[in-house]
Automatic annotation (TrEMBL):
Pathway(s) the chain acts in: Cofactor biosynthesis; NAD(+) biosynthesis; NAD(+) from deamido-NAD(+) (L-Gln route): step 1/1
Reactions this protein catalyses: deamido-NAD(+) + L-glutamine + ATP + H2O = L-glutamate + AMP + diphosphate + NAD(+) + H(+)
GO MF terms, alphabetically ordered: ATP binding; glutaminase activity; NAD+ synthase (glutamine-hydrolyzing) activity; NAD+ synthase activity
Residues holding deamido-NAD(+): N380, E409, K519
Gene behind this protein: nadE
Residues reported in the UniProt entry to bind L-glutamine: Y127, S183, K189
InterPro entries: C-N_Hydrolase, C-N_Hydrolase_sf, Gln-dep_NAD_synthase, NAD/GMP_synthase, NAD_synthase, Rossmann-like_a/b/a_fold
Record protein name field: Glutamine-dependent NAD(+) synthetase
Protein family: Belongs to the NAD synthetase family. In the C-terminal section; belongs to the NAD synthetase family.
Key word Ligase present: yes
Superkingdom as given in the UniProt entry: Bacteria
EC number of the protein: 6.3.5.1
UniProt xrefs under Pfam families: CN_hydrolase, NAD_synthase
Length: 550
């Protein structure tokens, strides 16, 4: 027996939510992490049942690793190890299980030294970043497992967002539903989850435990925020977002299975949640891929300033190298502000002029360029020389180049292929320009690291004399509103104009978005923080004849 099983004269069930970060593909390592968490849950929290995230043995999303011939034997070995070495506790573990010719996204129940049973996910998402129907077969029915005399229903992620599985579990007699998740972050996701869980619990008169993955995986960020709702739809417990941990919840078992209410964490602002998501995405991408450090071009502008702050917060200042690469068009205040940012964050900072490199290139190109006038070719050369410098530092010292382009720029192609787009990870790839400013002000509330004039001065690529972004683009407040409608909401040109925007602005922005698909395909990945980022979310053909209109 694991201690006193009575709470004020009633039976209790101690559930521990294992909100943990997994490495995709490392099945033995993930299994060891599950085992360690199981022992800690018993020793520190007297757990009866430990609930892990969806597909925790493979990590999420495993993508085409699910097609590898050795998947089944690796999963079988991991589950056998857990059954043999797990402590006296019930484990609910997410894993892909092959059975009767199909592969299922399953919640596996391990107890008493063996695999007891499993539940197969019924609702397979196939939208946005999800393509589970490519890999999995649908489960067909609910499953109720008895844990310390309590009938418990199991569901997996999308099951709880859709009508059917929770209702089936309740109808089959479940008094508690455990839901395993790998639900990626976006800016409004936690509020949507909370509303959905409240609805499911209240409408079915059943308590719910929602356990979510935490950590970064390529462009996806998982924010945790695991929650428990009682049968009346009241949130009784919530784990903090972006923090690994084991979070125990006590259920009083009488006629119902009622969670003991805990103090809930303070709500965090949208800016705080986005900033923490970026930090998580950078930290895990760098660490999980084995990079020792990162290097980035620091321009004195707002985008590189926020990128630098995120990188330093994610990795520590000793693993961040900032490089200013001035040219004749670089303003003196840009040099001053870049140095101030680097000093405030205590990162390594170097200044390497590209002037002589540019002159050498132009000398070489003098003959083929004879008789032509300077244009964006010369501007792009500056950006490409900076890319060469950063990639050389990357090759020599094993640093990952992090780029600084924001979503607004990526959308309209306001970036240089093989120049400022050269690198391995774009921290702001899914962050609209207007939100970049908000993040800068938010970061300064934690400690002032971005000079005020970086936030207030007009943005410029500084590739030509007195250049301003708004010479080439609508104001970012207008641009971002148009982009949101066209990219994230799929509104047509006519519908956007009907919302009050100038037709010439709308037509121009849509054209820029459409013709720059080829650039975005060659851009580095970056953390997804909106409901529709560039990458898995939005898959448009480069070569196409689609015309804007209604």
């Amino acid at each position: 027996m694991q201690g006193d099983r009575q709470v004020m004269g009633s039976d209790r069930l101690q559930v521990v939510m294992a909100q943990i970060d997994m490495l995709v593909g490392d099945i033995p390592g993930n299994a060891e992490k599950v085992l360690t968490a199981a022992h800690e849950a018993v020793e520190a929290h007297d757990a009866d049942v430990v609930v892990f995230p969806e597909l925790c043995l493979t990590g999420y999303p495993p993508e085409d690793l699910l097609l590898r011939p050795s998947l089944d034997t690796r999963i079988e070995s991991a589950l056998a190890m857990l059954a043999e070495r797990a402590p006296e506790v019930t484990l609910i573990v997410g894993a892909p299980i092959r059975d009767q010719g199909g592969l299922f996204n399953s919640a596996v129940v391990i107890a008493d030294g063996r695999i007891q049973t499993r539940y197969d996910k019924q609702k397979l998402p196939n939208y946005q970043v999800f393509d589970e129907k490519r890999y999995f077969s649908e489960g067909a029915s609910p499953y109720i497992v008895e844990i310390r005399g309590v009938p418990v229903g199991l569901t997996v992620c999308e099951d709880i967002w859709s009508d059917g599985p929770v209702e089936q579990a309740a109808a089959a007699g479940a008094r508690l539903v455990l839901n395993l998740n790998a639900s990626p972050f976006d800016m409004a996701k936690q509020e949507r989850r909370r509303a959905m869980l409240e609805h499911r619990a209240r409408d079915n008169g059943i308590s719910l435990v929602y356990v979510n993955l935490v950590g970064g995986q390529d462009e996806l960020v998982f924010d945790g925020g695991s929650m428990v709702f009682d049968r009346s739809g009241v949130c009784a417990a919530e784990a903090p977002c972006f923090e690994e941990g084991l979070y125990p919840v006590t259920f009083v078992v009488e006629h119902h299975c009622q969670p003991v209410t805990q103090p809930l964490p303070e709500p965090i602002s949208m800016e705080a949640s986005v900033y923490d998501a970026l930090v998580t995405g950078v930290r895990d991408y760098v660490n999980k891929n084995g990079f020792r450090s990162v290097v980035l071009g620091l321009s004195g502008g707002i985008d590189s300033a926020v990128t630098l702050a995120v990188a330093a917060d994610a990795l520590g200042p000793d693993r961040v190298h900032a490089v200013m690469m001035p040219f004749r068009y670089t303003a003196g205040i840009s040099l001053e502000d870049a140095e101030a940012e680097a000093r405030a964050l205590d990162v390594r900072y170097d200044v390497f002029s590209i002037e002589s490199m540019y002159d050498s290139f132009m000398e070489t190109l003098a003959v083929p360029f004879e008789g032509t006038q300077p244009n964006t070719t010369e501007e792009n050369l500056q950006a490409r020389l900076r890319g060469v410098l950063l990639m050389s530092l990357s090759n020599k010292f094993g640093s990952l180049v992090v780029t600084t382009g924001n979503k607004s720029e990526m959308a309209v192609g306001y970036s240089t292929l093989y120049g400022d787009m050269a690198g391995g990870f774009d921290v702001l790839k899914d962050v609209p320009k207007t939100l970049v400013y908000q993040l800068a002000r938010f970061r300064n509330t934690r400690s002032p690291v971005i000079p005020e004039r970086v936030i207030t001065r007009p943005p410029s690529a500084e590739l030509a004399p007195d250049q301003k972004d708004e010479d080439s683009l609508p104001g970012y407040d207008v641009l971002d509103d148009i982009l949101n409608r066209y990219i994230e909401r799929d509104m047509s040109e006519e519908a956007i104009v009907a919302d009050g925007f100038k037709r010439e602005d709308v037509a121009r922005v849509i054209r820029l978005v459409d013709i720059n698909e080829y650039k975005r395909r060659q851009a580095p990945i970056g953390p997804r923080i909106t409901e529709r980022g560039f990458g898995k979310d939005r898959r448009y053909p480069i070569t196409n004849g689609w015309k804007p209109g209604v």
